[in-house]
Amino acid sequence: MALTRRRTLLAGAALGGAALLTGCSEDPAPERDGHSSAAARLRRGAARDSTALLARYDATLAAHPTLEPALRPLRTEVARHAEAFGVSHPSSAGHPRPQVPKDERTARAQLADSERKLADKRTTALTTAPPELARLLASVAAAGAAHAYLLTKA
């Protein structure tokens, strides 16, 4: 039953991510509330955070290739999140490769912790974000929380 729940959650996260990217990945209109520079900084920070998380996924996949089936779909979603925040071709090339524990279980736990912390950071940022960016942050934070759950339940 846990496998069925996991697949359901993963499918829901993927569908939510697809809906998110369909509705929010176009070039945003100028912010109407006069906070465009603050919103732009928040968006750039979210993009950096997504590419840093992408680097963590890539490092974990390089250190533990047997985790590929479990991590590849999540890594793909993280790349889509970076695109939604304005990164045209997301890659982890510009980030230093994070240290990855030798133990697979610990590596997954560390990745889950990174997802959880980033989801919390994005949730906190909702209070200062303009509406369109707040919706994007909320959706990506929810996906990150789902990723953390999936990483800890396998």
Structural overview:
This protein has one domain (2-7, 36-86, 98-153). The chain has 154 residues and is an all-alpha fold. It is globular and about 45 Å long. Helices cover 73% and strands 0% of the residues. It contains 5 helices and no strands. The longest helix is centred in the N-terminal third of the chain and has 28 residues, at 36-63. The model is unreliable at 18-34 (pLDDT under 50). The two termini are 12 Å apart.
Unreliable segments of 5+ consecutive residues: 18-34
Percentage of residues assigned to helices: over 70%
Question: Which geometry do the CA atoms define?
Answer: globular
Helix-strand pattern: HHHHH
- Count of extended strands: 0
| Beta-strand percentage range | under 5%
Distance between the first and last residues' Cα: 12 Å
Q: How many domain units? A: 1
What is Rg?
A: 15 Å
Name the average pLDDT: 84
Output the structural class.
mainly alpha
User: Please, how many helices?
Assistant: 5
Please outline the major beta sheet. none
Protein name: Lipoprotein
Keywords: Lipoprotein
Region (Disordered): 25-45, 83-126
Organism: Streptomyces chattanoogensis
